[in-house]
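Example (one chain per record):
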Amino acid sequence: MVRFALFLTGCDLSFWTGSKSRAIVPPAVTATAISPVVTPITMPTPAPVPVSFNGSTRFSVDSSVVDVTDELALLLEKSQQHSIIDITVIGHTDDAGSAVYSQDLSEKRARAVADYFVRQGIDEQRLIVKGKGEGSPVSGNETEDGRSKNRRVGVLLRGMSDSEINR
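Predicted structure:
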């Protein structure tokens, strides 16, 4: 009669059949560190909300001097209250000059508004400045009134809803 017994002690495996005891040594085991896989959760970025100055923040011909209007001051106030938002400032011109000149002037207009925001305490890292030149008119350039409407700066706010802006 053969008896069979199995003993597990530590890392050794032994068995006994009644006559002799034999140890079976398992192959060497190498420890491998397991790195956890971390997948960052990204929240959807809110779409930018365009803000209109309703024509009161316009520029004179060939100028990038900003007149601080009530609307611009209100926009600054909203931007200070909601520090999570990014602010994109986009300058525009009429078509009176060359395309290269208009592009440069539109960038200067956007930079002038962005500089105003920075002087009032908005972190420059939150600002994106773009110029669109004469490429995005809101009115025809055939009349002085139409051209004056096109000499403007638009602002996009990311991180605020329409209702937060209009409160």
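Caption: The CA atoms of residues 5 and 16 lie 5 Å apart.
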